[in-house]
TrEMBL record:
Keywords: Kinase, Transferase. This is Fructoselysine 6-kinase. One of its GO terms (molecular function) is kinase activity. Belongs to the carbohydrate kinase PfkB family. It holds the Pfam family PfkB. Residues 14-262 form the Carbohydrate kinase PfkB domain.
Length: 273
């Protein structure tokens, strides 16, 4: 099984620790899939700057392909400033998606055509391409908190595996989210509930996966780690209880470190405050 992760990457700039970590929903999933042993290609774009060059170096150094990445002249690699309030809760400040708002090139589309599954997300600005991507392969999509709104209704007919963030909704609303998605032809639905675990629907059944115990340092990327392990399990035709337990463990491991990946940018003269 070959997965193409298509879409955003970003440099998460932590003001508290003055740390810059590569992330972004789609990049996080691609890296996590690779670390799980899945054949994966990240397809995205970076700026012609140090951050862009270093991202490609990081990916290549861990054995990942970088031929799916386009370098965009005249735009910086995207970034998002991450703050923490007095209670330690994370929130985002200034951001600029920069070069990560990509238009797929013919060369990139040719690479994506080789995939058995395509994963992308709400933050990748590829909504106008989803129908076309669904003609190439099955599509997995992270909707975040878009559930019953026009955004979700527009895209759901083209999605095979749907992921939603549901930390603010109850079990009845979670079930409604799944039923609605299934009515559009979606095959699996996963709703994450943050520290409360996740609900996974497929084949007429529902599984509830509790979160794994952890003393969280940073929750950024935890949902992406859960998505990656779920996708890996589906691709490998593993039992849901098996891949969901792994997803919970991988999510907890992500919470125990800073950032959605372990790829850091150091000595950046363009550091943003």
């Amino acid at each position: 099984m070959f997965v193409a992760c298509v879409g955003d990457n970003i440099l998460d700039v932590y003001t508290k620790t003055q740390t810059e970590v590569y992330g972004g929903n789609t990049l996080n999933v691609a890296v996590a899939l690779h670390d799980l042993g899945v054949s994966v290609l990240y397809v995205g774009s970076v700026g012609d700057d140090k951050a862009g060059r270093e991202l490609k170096r990081h990916l290549a150094s861990r054995g990942m392909r970088i031929d799916g990445i386009e370098t965009v002249r005249g735009k910086p690699t995207g970034y998002a400033v991450v703050h923490h309030d007095s209670n330690g809760e994370r929130y985002f400040g200034e951001y600029d998606r920069g070069a990560s708002q990509l238009e797929l090139s013919e060369r990139q589309i040719g690479l994506i055509e080789e995939a058995d599954l395509i994963h992308t997300s709400y933050s990748s600005a590829l909504e106008d391409e989803i129908a076309n991507l669904a003609q190439l392969a099955k599509v997995s999509f992270d909707f975040d908190e878009h559930r019953g709104d026009p955004y979700a209704r527009r895209l759901l007919p083209h999605i095979t595996h749907a992921f939603f963030s549901g930390s603010q909704i109850n079990q009845s609303e979670t079930t409604e989210t799944a039923i609605r998605a299934f009515s559009y032809g979606v095959k699996t639905v996963t709703v994450t509930h943050g520290a409360e675990g996740a609900s996974h629907f497929r084949d007429g059944r529902v599984w509830f996966q509790p979160s794994a115990p952890v003393e969280p340092i940073d929750t950024l990327g935890a949902g992406d780690a859960f998505i990656a392990a779920t996708i890996a399990g589906i691709c490998r035709d593993q039992p849901p209880d098996e891949y969901l337990a792994l997803a919970a463990r991988r999510s907890a491991q992500t919470c125990a470190v800073v950032g959605g990946t372990d790829m850091y940018l150091v000595n950046n003269s363009m550091r943003r405050r």
